[in-house]
Design a protein that fits this description.
single chain; OB fold (Dihydrolipoamide Acetyltransferase, E2P); Immunoglobulin-like; eight-stranded mixed β-sheet; 4 helices; 28 strands; 10% helix
Length: 390
C-alpha cells in the first residue's frame, strides 16, 4: 500500500506542475488528481497531448489527464464515418469521428488516480431560450406580437429585505407601450414572472457580483400574487398590463445625496453638480456617489482609471465594462445609474507627504483620444498632509 501511495503522490505532483505552467484561464482551474472515481460533464475548451481542459456547467475549468488507456466515444459528425479502432494491448478504444474538438460537450469518468478512464460525447444542454419555452437562441418578437425578448446576464434576484427569489433571464419589451420588464425565473418552481424595471434596481454589493433587488419585501411579494407563467411563450400581455397598472407603487427608498451628477448629451459630459473646470473632485477616505443619465440618442460609456482597483455598487440600469486600465459602465439611451463607492486614500511618500492624486474619466466609445469632448479629470483631495500637484 505504501508503494501505491507513493505512485499516487508522484502523479499528483506531475499534474500540479503542469497546471503551474499553464496560461490565463488555466491559472484559475482545478486539477483532477487522486480521490474516488467520479463523473463530470462540461465542454472542452482546450486539448493538449496529455490532457483535456473542460469547463463544467458551474463555470469552473478542470484539467483532466488523458492517457493511451483512455476510452473515447466521439460524436458522429456531418459527412464523417463512424470509426471503430481496435485497441492495442494497454490502450483504450476509439469510437465515432475521433479526435474530439474544442467546443464538444462531453461526459468524463475520472479514475481514482486522477486520469480520464472514459470520455464520451454528451448532448449539449438546451439553451437558455429553449428552457424558457422559446426557440433556440431566440431574441426578438415573441407571441402576441407586442413582446420583444433579449437574453440577459443571469443575475440573482432578491427582495428588498434580502430574501432570494430567483434569477433574471433577460428583458421583455412591450413594443406598443414601450414598457420594459425584467423576466424573473422563480427558484422554487421555475415559473416566469415579468416585472417592470420601475419595480427593480440593480445593485453591486461585491466586486464582480451584481444582483437585482425587487423594491418590495418578501411578505408584500407574496400578497401581490403577480402573474407567473410556465414558459415565456405563454405570457399574456393584457394580463401584465392590467395587473401592473393596478399594483401599488414600489415602497419608497430614501435616495442618497449624490456628490456628482452628470448628464450625457450631444456626445459630451455635462456635469450639473460637483463639477470643476476640467472635471470633478472627490474627498479621499469618504463615501461617494456619482449619478449618470444618458440623455443622448446613442449609447455611451463612463469609465475611469479610479475604478481599476476601486469596487463600486451600481443602482439603476447600466452594464459594467472593463478595459485594460479602467472600469466603469455603459448606458443605453435614456438609462440612469448611480455609482456608490469609497474614495481611496493615497499613501505617504518617503518624506511623509500625501499628495492629491489624479485620475481620468472618459467615454470609451466617443472619448478615446486626447482632445475629445468626452474626457475629463477626476481629482481626489486629501484632507491631511501637504497638498501637492498643480
Amino acid at each position: 500500500m505504501r508503494y501505491v501511495s507513493a505512485i499516487s503522490g508522484v502523479i499528483a505532483a506531475l499534474a500540479f506542475a503542469a497546471t503551474a505552467s499553464a496560461g490565463p484561464f488555466e491559472d484559475k482551474s482545478q486539477v483532477t488528481v487522486g480521490g474516488a472515481e467520479y463523473m463530470m460533464s462540461g465542454h472542452i475548451v482546450k486539448i493538449e497531448q496529455d490532457a483535456y481542459w473542460i469547463r463544467k456547467h458551474s463555470g469552473d475549468v478542470v484539467r483532466v489527464a488523458v492517457t493511451e488507456g483512455t476510452h473515447l466515444i466521439c460524436p458522429t459528425r456531418p459527412g464523417g464515418k463512424e470509426a471503430k479502432v481496435e485497441p492495442k494491448p494497454g490502450s483504450g478504444f476509439r469510437m465515432g469521428d475521433c479526435p474530439f474538438k474544442p467546443g464538444d460537450t462531453v461526459r468524463v469518468e475520472i479514475s481514482d488516480i486522477g486520469w480520464a478512464s472514459l470520455i464520451r460525447y454528451d448532448v449539449p444542454p438546451a439553451s437558455e431560450t429553449v428552457q424558457l419555452g422559446l426557440p433556440q437562441g431566440w431574441e426578438g418578437d415573441i407571441p402576441h406580437g407586442v413582446l420583444s425578448f433579449k437574453a440577459g446576464p443571469q443575475y440573482p434576484v432578491h427582495t428588498k429585505d434580502g430574501h432570494h427569489v430567483g434569477h433574471l433571464a433577460g428583458t421583455l419589451t412591450d413594443t406598443i407601450l414601450g414598457t420594459e420588464y425584467g423576466l424573473l425565473v422563480h427558484a422554487a418552481d421555475g415559473h416566469m414572472m415579468p416585472v417592470p424595471w420601475t419595480q427593480l434596481r440593480q445593485e453591486w454589493p461585491q466586486p464582480n457580483k451584481p444582483m437585482v433587488v425587487m423594491l418590495v419585501t418578501k411578505a408584500r411579494l407574496g400578497e401581490m400574487h403577480a402573474p407567473a407563467y410556465k414558459s415565456a411563450n405563454l405570457i399574456s400581455i393584457p394580463a401584465l398590463r392590467d395587473f401592473w397598472a393596478k399594483a401599488t407603487p414600489p415602497e419608497p427608498l430614501v435616495p442618497r445625496e449624490v456628490d456628482v451628477a452628470i448628464d450625457i448629451s450631444e456626445k459630451a459630459f455635462q456635469i450639473t453638480k460637483g463639477g470643476t473646470e476640467r472635471g470633478f473632485h472627490l474627498v479621499a477616505g469618504m463615501p461617494a456617489a456619482i449619478r449618470l443619465h444618458n440623455r443622448d440618442v446613442v449609447a455611451h460609456e463612463f469609465v475611469s482609471t479610479l475604478f481599476q482597483d476601486v469596487p463600486f455598487r451600481m443602482s439603476g440600469n447600466a452594464t459594467v465594462v472593463k478595459t485594460a486600465r479602467a472600469s466603469g459602465v455603459r448606458l443605453d439611451p435614456g438609462q440612469r445609474v448611480t455609482l456608490e463607492f469609497s474614495v481611496p486614500q493615497a499613501k505617504a511618500d518617503a518624506y511623509g507627504i500625501i499628495e492629491t492624486s489624479y485620475d481620468v474619466f472618459w467615454c470609451n466609445v466617443h472619448g478615446k483620444e486626447h482632445g475629445d469632448k468626452m474626457r475629463g479629470d477626476l481629482m481626489v483631495l486629501e484632507t491631511s498632509g501637504e497638498v501637492g500637484g498643480g
